[in-house]
């Protein structure tokens, strides 16, 4: 008989979320109660932000508690429903977590339209990944035509979209990524004007060459030394968008603060954080823009699909050692 | 015969600007050429920013070069003039530096009106000090009525004015300063609602008590550990105004970056620097506001006047060991 397979948080990680932080549980498939829906997971989104949710700290959402199913974005199929808005066979996006089956009361579930795009894209460009790039760059970064834009994690799920939107908006784009393959991808696939390989280039020199007059917008996914180096190259009234800090998420030592932050003073510049959920009311318009750019070929999105819920612990680690190539999605 | 007495930069300081970085020079009083003015200095402004001007780095103004008269804000009397806009006996504010006499072509000199306020006030509340507080808080900090405002260096020249403007605007004000005397001054003279003594209080606990629901605006004059601690207590959409970082100016090790900067992300908050010169077009309106608040008794400014240009090297150090009590001004 089919079972519900789940990954639960067994203990809080110190550093990388290694295999031993997970408890794998098989149990009977639950039955939906009054007003409830039984869902079967098709795709699970694997995101750097998940590492933050595992820490027992005040954040923009509560931490995942020990014993809880690990939180994750999902695309699911409705198997059976006692809820008038959801019918068997419908596909919905939500946050059902790392499990094959789940029960929902419908809150936070959104039907998706697979005639426009394949289901998994609603975890990528048409989902929170794309929305993060869109609102972070355009709203927080206050992008203007002609800006010089630097993106770290530039070949990643969010970074690759940021670079392309900036290009569409008439900016010069400089991407920072690790290794020659990713840098080639930046130029050939994501249309970056310049690519910097943080593993082999001297970032300061490379930035100076690529942006001799300085940087207007820096979209930061990584933090650490790269943030600190970019701070030395910002222009007057620059905007630094703090989207993430993947270089710091698995630190067992304190987070490395940007020691060049006084560059903000000299340059009358700003560093600002954001959480994509705040823009929920504008998702529809953003998704329409994104779908349009994809249709016209201006926006390309690479999905890196891996299979098998049993492989979850190792797949998650791919995000932190750079093994993913675009938006990482676990197909159940 | 009277001589021109000057302090010139003899070498770049490492750490504190000790006596040996200065060269004291006496020379003949210069004569004004065509279109020029001879000025006699009455008051010299001593400011933390002067330390930054001594470093050989790209900044919002060029560094003071070795051999140059040290840059400083001044109030001077016109002694003789070959310039139609300036007559002997006029008092002007400017940047004539640490010297008793100087020649100017009139650029950057502004006549001051001593029927409104005593001359030295144009180096304080009605000068760049006051303008820094005003525009930093209201424009960069985007102050709103009801905000919870924290100020570091709260008894200092800028900080004491920031706290009072925030109070006038209907905010809760929390000042951080060093020692019981300064903390008493915060409450009794500058009307802060709460005072935190960074020398004896646990800042984190004291902030938690003073601002249990978090902080909306932090006006930072000091950087370092205090900035890092405040970051743990900011509220959603908080604004951190980077005005200075006096705790870091004399470092011989790298500047301490704020390791809690990811709080900006979680709280959708912003950290922004500014330079007061950018608001020059609005100085007049700001000075009118400030003069009005002083007249009504809502705004109090403490000037700490010390005498004798020969004492300059030691007086400057007062800023860095907390010996100044309000706006530090050297009377020549």
Protein model, in words:
The structure is a homodimer of 332-residue chains. Chain A has 332 residues and is of the alpha/beta class. Chain A has two domains: 3-124 and 301-331, Quinone Oxidoreductase, Chain A, domain 1; 128-277, NAD(P)-binding Rossmann-like Domain (Rossmann fold, 3-Layer(aba) Sandwich), CATH 3.40.50.720. Helix content of chain A is 25%, strand content 26%. Chain A has nine helices and 15 strands. The first copy, chain A, has helices at residues 49-53, 128-140, 157-168, 180-188, 203-210, 224-231, 263-266, 283-295, 312-321; strands at 3-9, 22-28, 37-45, 74-81, 91-94, 101-104, 110-111, 148-152, 172-177, 194-197, 215-220, 234-242, 270-273, 303-307, 327-331. In chain A, strands 3, 4, 5, 6, 7, 14 and 15 form a seven-stranded mixed beta sheet that branches. A six-stranded parallel beta sheet of chain A has the order 10-9-8-11-12-13, sandwiched between helices. In chain A, helix 2 crosses helix 3 (157-168). Chain A is globular, with a radius of gyration of 20 Å. The interface between A and B is medium-sized, with 33 and 33 residues. Strand 13 (270-273) of chain A pairs antiparallel with strand 13 of chain B.
């Amino acid at each position: 008989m089919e079972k519900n397979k789940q990954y639960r948080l067994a203990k809080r990680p110190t550093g990388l979320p290694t295999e031993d932080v997970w408890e794998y549980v098989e149990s009977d498939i639950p039955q939906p109660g009054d007003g409830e829906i039984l869902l079967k997971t098709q795709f699970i989104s694997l995101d750097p932000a998940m590492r933050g949710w595992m820490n027992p700290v005040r954040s923009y959402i509560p931490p995942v508690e020990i014993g809880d199913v690990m939180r994750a974005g999902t695309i699911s199929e409705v198997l059976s429903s006692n809820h008038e808005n959801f019918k068997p066979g419908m596909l919905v996006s939500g946050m059902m977590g790392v499990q094959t089956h789940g029960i929902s009361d419908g809150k936070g579930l959104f039907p998706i339209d697979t005639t426009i795009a394949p289901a998994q894209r609603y975890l990528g460009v048409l989902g929170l990944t794309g929305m993060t790039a869109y609102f972070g760059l355009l709203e927080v970064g206050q992008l203007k035509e002609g800006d010089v834009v630097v993106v770290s994690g530039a070949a990643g799920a969010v970074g690759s979209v940021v670079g392309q939107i900036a290009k569409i908006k008439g900016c010069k784009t400089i991407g920072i990524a690790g290794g020659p393959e990713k840098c080639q991808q930046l130029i050939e696939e994501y249309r970056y004007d310049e690519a910097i390989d943080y593993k082999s280039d001297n970032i300061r020199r490379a930035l100076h060459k690529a942006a001799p007059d300085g940087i207007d917008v820096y979209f930061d996914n990584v933090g650490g030394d790269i943030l600190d180096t970019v701070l030395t190259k910002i222009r007057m009234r620059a905007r630094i968008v703090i989207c993430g800090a993947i270089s710091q998420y698995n630190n067992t030592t304190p987070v490395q603060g940007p020691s060049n932050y006084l560059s903000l003073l000299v340059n009358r510049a700003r560093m600002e954080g954001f959480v994509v959920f705040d823009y929920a009311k504008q998702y529809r318009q953003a998704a329409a823009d994104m779908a349009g750019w994809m249709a016209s070929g201006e926006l390309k999105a690479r999905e890196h699909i891996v299979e098998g819920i049993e492989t979850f612990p190792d797949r998650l680690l791919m995000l932190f050692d750079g093994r993913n190539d675009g938006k990482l999605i676990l197909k159940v």
